[in-house]
Write a structure and sequence with these properties.
Radius of gyration: 16 Å
CATH topology: Rossmann fold
Structural class: alpha/beta
Strand order of the largest sheet: 3-2-1-4-5-6-7-8
Number of helices: 9
CATH architecture: 3-Layer(aba) Sandwich
Distance between the termini: 30 Å
Number of strands: 8
Order of helices and strands: EHEHEHEHHEHEHEHEH
Largest sheet: 8 strands, mixed
Length: about 220
Amino acid sequence: MTEKPTIAIIGGTGAEGGGIALRLANAGYRVVIGGRDAAKAEAAAAGINAEIAKDNATGATSAEAAARADVILLTVPYAAQRDTALALREQLQGKVLIDATVPLMPPKVARVQLPEGDSAVANLQAELGEGVRVVAAFQNVSAHHLRDLSHEVECDVLVCADDAEAAGVAVGLAEAMGLRAYHAGPVANAAAVEALTSLLISINRRYKSPGSGIRITGV
């Protein structure tokens, strides 16, 4: 039996990262929550372990978490995405970086506002270079639903990457979390995935939903 990789969640003390960390730890993965404040990350990990009655989560600084992990998930706000990732460039070398960044620009978060270059994740891949295999995933999944282990998340995960093997890693993690995931083309296609989040926020506001989602049909 192949041992599960260790997963670092950079930004795991936040809502989205915390939900992903909870579901992966519950699925038997060793999860290292990384943050600027190690004590806060350790407290978040302890909360997860208490909830799932397992000892699968630990906390550390972002640099320590990335160094200890085989796969890194980036779940920080758009404003912190670039600086956070570039500060970890050394720890990311040779690894898969799954980036859940959405270029939301408060206060108009329900309006699509893509960055220059069209995709926040594709821009990061260009800056990090070929030594880091960047994958876009989890942009459209509600943090509210991720945090509820009893809730079946009715949202598919669209995975975009230039490296098919790296994309497969993200698909496997999503499926382990109880989600359906689909290969959705190269990392440049992340522009469409990122834009969908603003549409979903608009729908949530109009219909007073805690987390609308998307489904792929006909596959």
